Amino acid sequence: MLLAIDCGNTNTVFSIWDGTRFIATWRTSTEHQRTADQYYVWLSTLMAFQKIEAEITDMIVSSTVPRVVFNLRVLADRYFNTRPIVVGKPECALPVDVRVDAGTAVGPDRLVNTVAGHDLYGGDLIVVDFGTATTFDVVDHDGAYVGGVIAPGVNLSLSALHQAAAALPHVDISKPQSVVGTNTVACMQSGIFWGYIGLIKEICARIKAERERPMKIISTGGLAPLFQQTEDLFDVFRDDLTMHGLTVIHKHNKAIG
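That's the Type III pantothenate kinase sequence above. Prediction below.
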């Protein structure tokens, strides 16, 4: 079976794919100090708890944190006797083209989302991913990645506001009862919530105008449903978009040998 790992700046997701579906998915905080042995103890304990007797034969990794990749490689070699496919490395082939400025390094998570979006929904897409950063990735008609937009993530913006202004508290993002807040927390929540609604709508509208064609908007990440409940921002929400993309890339690399 395939162990797919998506390592982001904040969290790392582990999923086991049996060839047709994900039979288990777990999330942990991203820590570059975590050793291969610690990963294995954590993972094997969860598998035993859920009575999963899967034999891991393959592994694929997408990581926006380069320092964690070494220990994940050791995990694959030491405990699963396999060499992992690492998205973004020269030996990892993608089933789509990447058309950006020469020398530009594209985040592996953005490439994986592009592959997943095209596999599931075809071309001419805008993929909006709510992570540590909020990213907008543009997928051409043939599935190629052709660029995008990076904005500060929602929680990152809230944290920065709290840290930079001594009088402002840390608040959780939620839909405010009204646009005009009558206390500090409500004012902050309104600014973030409606500010991001405006950001998403405007960026997507400008991408569509620049591309001069209809485009489907795909969202992923935990906060997407929160924004979608108020405005019709996205055509499709897919929570497992990145993990699906990892399975597609793994299959592609196995097919080409």
